[in-house]
Amino acid sequence: MKLLISQALVIPMTQEGLSFRGDIGIDGKHIAFVGVKPAHFVPDQVIDGSSFLAMPALVNAHTHLSMELMRNYKDNLPTLQAWLAEIFPVEDKLQEEDVLRASRLGVIELIQSGVTTFTDMYFHPQATAQAVLEGGIRASIGITLFGSLAENKERVLQREADLRFYREHPDGRIQVDCAPHAIYTCPKETLQYAHDWAKDRQRILHIHVSETKQEVQDSLHQFGKTPLEYLYAIGALDGVRSLIAHGVHLTDAEVALLADMDATLVHNPSSNCKLSSGIAPIASYLERGVSVGLGTDGASSNNNLNMFEEMHIASLLGRVHTPTGTKLNPYQVLSMATVNGAKALGLERRIGMISEGMEADIILLDLKKSHLTPLNDPFSAVVYAAQASDVDTVLCQGKVVMQHRKVLTLDEEQTIKAVNESWDNIQRR
């Protein structure tokens, strides 16, 4: 199948400030060319891109997808710790079918906001993987670890078996990684086991770090070290690619440590603000060489999976909270949501840019909108003005998964009905 997107305004994310009018040719999964259509390329389908902005699909580098179930629930609690005390009992009631239904809803919401790749950390990961497969997008599915070493060894064996089909699927859209929750829910032995598992299999280790001041204070009291220093000291991050979620309260020493590691810090500004966790000084992290991605966190602490909103909030906070005087610019924020997210997942040679040979994960934004007129700077328009509702068309591996705002791979109406039914059942359990 050959697809031509003709005469779109293209932001390829291959060079800062670069945008141009041009054609994008797609042959199967891959981008065949970008620029001017060669005479030998004969498309089976043509999308008139003249009123669209074409850009790489977004990467949501940290979320808990099926927490869709707890959206708009217990919203006014004062701290992360108080919120978790209300959420954990609900999670104890979740069944695999609940997670499958909520994950389908999450996949729909991601597609509707231009996301084709996400990183997940949650329970019943095989159910989330099934929703990803049905929805036609990509995911890093984390085998989530809590508690003692013995129970986690058993859990990992079971989850590896549960997820083998999805990891080995020929589409190659699902990778299985390791997700120890945090230092306050996993003892040292579990964290070291997670590290060894990830290192042996060359997988990613995904963990919450320094989300709150309380977490840092507790770590100093218990271990005599800050969270990242503790993880480094016990060898939990050595020689593995790591995703460090939040990192709101890092010391200068930790920032220097992180900059030298094969790691990406994932900024979650909406969740951090809502839970009163704080504002990460992202501009200063970037200035010091830290790779930074962007995530929404779960829909219970956000309360949505809207990466356009996340970019907007990140950009605003990154121009106000500037301890070193350095401010975020739109290209940096857009890089966090595309190029940096792809790199974080080891997918930098496959997605994150619109370039010949890359897989065709592309979104088209409808520019015929009052809030995008006049366009002037397309990077500013995407980060400061664009809405998720401007995403008209979404492609993943060259396949159209949403067109004219209609998700083609999952039934939105039936999914909403099923999620409401699951939530009613959970409350009765």
Observed structural traits:
single chain; 429 residues; alpha/beta; Urease, subunit C, domain 1; 2 domains; 15 helices
Task: Describe the protein.
With 429 residues, this protein is an alpha/beta fold. It folds into two domains: 2-56 and 353-407, Roll (Urease, subunit C, domain 1); 58-344, Metal-dependent hydrolases (TIM Barrel). 38% of the residues lie in helices and 23% in strands. The protein has 15 helices and 17 strands. Strands 1, 2, 3, 4, 5, 14, 15, 16 and 17 form a nine-stranded mixed sheet that branches. Strands 6-7-8-9 form a four-stranded parallel sheet. A hairpin with a 2-residue loop joins β16 (399-403) and β17. α2 runs antiparallel to α15 (412-428) and α11 crosses α14. The longest helix is centred in the middle third of the chain and has 19 residues, at 149-167. The model has no long low-confidence stretch (mean pLDDT 97).
CATH homologous superfamily title of the largest domain: Metal-dependent hydrolases
In CATH, the topology of the largest domain is named TIM Barrel
The proportion of residues in beta strands is 15-25%
CATH level 1 class label of the largest domain: Alpha Beta
Low-confidence stretches: none
Identify the quaternary structure here: single chain
- Please tally the helical runs, counting DSSP H or I stretches of 4 or more residues: 15
